[in-house]
Amino acid sequence: MKQDLVLSNLHLRDLNPRICGREVCAPGHTFGPAVREYHLLHYVVRGTGVFRRAQAVYTLRAGDIFVIRPGESTVYAADQADPWEYIWVGFDCAPQFATLLDRDVIRLPSAGRSFAAMAGCSAAAQEWSICGQLYELFSQLAAGAGAGRAPQPDYVGRAINYIESNYSQPVRVEEIARSLGLSRNYFCRLFHQQTGFSPQAYLIEYRLARALQFLENGMTQAQAARQAGYPDVFAFSRMFRRRYGLPPGRYLEARGKPPHP
């Protein structure tokens, strides 16, 4: 038995639900290899199964969460004798949330209530209900995030602060890495591991999100493009359409907000 919730993409900036569902799997039921463009969490309600990512193989049971990050190829399969039932939720998230998902498997039986609430959402405003439950879930993850870990320099957090403070100016990945005392390759790998984005992709995403805010607050496209760090309105419009599927003016009209003349 499989239940899928059909969600609208609200394009929320910090925590944006994309999919949610629940499945009682048949013995040996396998999914993958598959790659996602968003974060995806599965909570095991009952039964057992196997989760594979790269060279790692995990045998999971009730109360476990397995984590799939953007761009990762994974396979998971229900046990033949005791097949699992799980609830899943997929979402886009800001780097501050992604840093709490650096483990492939998280043991968190208390999260069952949040996952059950997400899977049981009614159709009315279900995206917002799921978003609220995701915040509750991340509060539980944050509470145990530091247990047993030695403090590490927050390179990614510092890089994010730099990007969000300087996005309207020319920003080069090499300069950020150098300011942190890291090689470019190591910095890019670390940033992607913790956020699911490359530094350049995060910069683009942040600039577009800010530009959209500027447009919704009444700026012209040229003003929003310049304020968000784009050299001209044509480059901005091209990038905006690639991200949101429509040029800026039509996107605003579709949301009931006519563009500023």
Overall pLDDT confidence: 84
Query: How many structural domains can be distinguished in the coordinates?
Result: 2
Alpha-carbon distance between the two ends:
52 Å
- In CATH, the architecture of the largest domain is Sandwich
Notes on the protein architecture:
The chain is of the alpha+beta class and 261 residues long. It folds into 2 domains: 2-143, Jelly Rolls (Sandwich), CATH 2.60.120.280; 155-254, Arc Repressor Mutant, subunit A, CATH 1.10.10.60. It is built from 10 helices and 10 strands. It has helices at 95-98, 112-119, 126-143, 155-166, 173-180, 184-195, 199-216, 221-227, 233-244, 248-254; strands at 2-5, 15-24, 30-35, 39-46, 49-53, 56-60, 64-68, 73-78, 85-93, 105-107. A 6-stranded antiparallel β-sheet has the order 1-2-9-4-7-10. Strands 3-8-5-6 form a 4-stranded antiparallel β-sheet, with no helix packed on it. The longest helix has 18 residues, at 126-143. It is globular, with a radius of gyration of 20 Å. Residues 147-151 have low confidence and may be disordered.
